[in-house]
Amino acid sequence: MGKIALCFGLFADTSADGSGIPNTHIYENSYKTLASYLFSHENVPFSFFFSGPVLEWLQSQHSEYLLVIEELMARKQIEVLGGGYYNPHFPLLQPADRSGQIEALTTALRKHFKKRPHGCFINESVWDPSLINTLNSCSLEYAMLDYSFFASDMYDPKALTVSITEDMGKSVFVLPLHNELFEAADIALPEAFLEKLIKAVPSSVSNPAVTCFISAEKLSELVQQNWLEECFELLETTFKEKIELSLPWKVLKNSSAFNKAIIPSGMSKKASSWALKAYAKTAQNKNSTRTTIRNFTLLYPEVLNLYSRMTYTSLLVNQCRGDKVRKKAAREELWKAQNGASYWFLGSGGITNAKLRNEMYKNLLHAEQLVREVSTVNDSLNSFDVNFDGSNEYVAQFKLYDAYLSKTGGSIYEFDILQSERNFAATISDKRRRGLFSDFLVSDKDFNILSKGQSIDNVPCLNEAPYHELKYDRMKKNVKLESQVPFDKKKTVKIVKEFHFTKDSIRVDYRLINTSKENINAYLIIENNLCMQSNSPETLSMECSADDLLLPIPPENDFFNNKGIFYLRMTDSLSQCCFTLSSSDAAGVYAYPYFSQQQYLASTTGLFWKISLLPGAVCSRTVTLYIKRTETHQHKRKN
Q1: Could you tell me the CA-to-CA distances from 104 to 51, 343, 365, 463 in Å, in that order?
Q2: Against a cut of 0.90, is the pTM above it?
Q3: What fold characterizes domain 4-272?
């Protein structure tokens, strides 16, 4: 066995908040301390991955740091890897966006360090064979993937050597990653760590290589424990004959024989453990199919909604013609919305981070507005399969808003106010769907539970019912949907919902028909969940009318309930939007702020009626949502 080539690297973990921007503590104890040590120890090689936002932050806050990195690169002491500018999950992107993101980061690296990268860093090894062609076209020679792509054991010979993989006549080299060595909360002392490495690597491997990319957070811990410095000192003395520090490009250069591998789609063991069961970490069964990044779209409806919206916006941007400046600006906004941290959940943050999720929608809506400025888009209502579930959704597009209507529950799951650049339906669902015009037909007991924000188990609800299309009129912008749902075991109800979309309102006509042979006594609830920016009384005002009186609703209160309501108004001063719900019949209303993981997500309001239906009887209701941009905002824009 030859010497073990040990490669260390640094990257910014974006799984939680998406930015990867280091705070002062992380910068001082990882980035700065490491660079200072490397500058004074010329014989210690190290690798780095900087995403585009991290590079921008370093340039604006610590430009001297980039000068040090440039000097270290000139010495050939360090290697800086390429990748996606906004650290996206490449398999989720269109080919043009994949290569565009890689070329954008390559250009930035050449600008700062005068050299282009040779290798590609892929966050949590989110891989697909089609990436081989993209890497070839972007002149990247190799990528690094988790060792589990090659073998089940970290110290299997195939997991310690450089591989080569091919797809459609193109090939690329792949270096195995062993990040699992540093994922434990407490790793062994440096000496024990290196001794274990020597004993575990089989002697049959001629040129073994172990590569570890350490997150900035973990590196900060190691620096404080003096672990890294002790490890470097041991490698220069005690373990000099058996282990040498190296760089990925040197490992590739010194390899004469390569393991031929067919590498299927997949991702690291860490990411895979969160892609089997929603919000739960689960070990993957050896006999089960390898998970991919698309598993998150199956488990988390919010990921699917964001992904399908991003894909649709990508098609709009890439098909845009006429104004190259605006198209370029729209593409940059699209790339920002492709931040990989938004399209998964790894125990915290990710898609559950409200700030990050809203930022992604903001970028997508900004990109759409830029495209609309180039190609004139008239008010329209279209029907196509937006979220790839085999059933068409309905997309109403107006100058003021976009609304996405699903046949599941017959509810609006995305509601965009374009000038505010906000999706007001971007909630995280619990055990039930939360959108606009989300309906329920429940008993007295279940009404008391539901109206307080609690979930009801095993109760058929209208908001989960599958609807089918009765009428779709593109010209009049109307959609009529129908569903038959069970109620209280032997009873059934037919519900018909007709949506009327206009430039500043959405009207929904309801008809409930008792199709059973028994009386039905129940509460009909029409619930709306609007994602305001805050539930603070300073920024959000809520009021309703009862007996010709205006009743204020404290937006931060846990529970509000009243009856005899004809309209409900919500005004958000931060987004400068006013929403008014108007009812054809006097209704009861409940309201409460909806929280998830201690984050305010939305203000939930429900209009409800106690109804009694004889067999064959019909009940009708009409609810209209009016949308208005407030005058305060318009005045500010003029000034």
Answers
A1: 10, 21, 22, 43
A2: yes
A3: 7-stranded beta/alpha barrel (3.20.110)
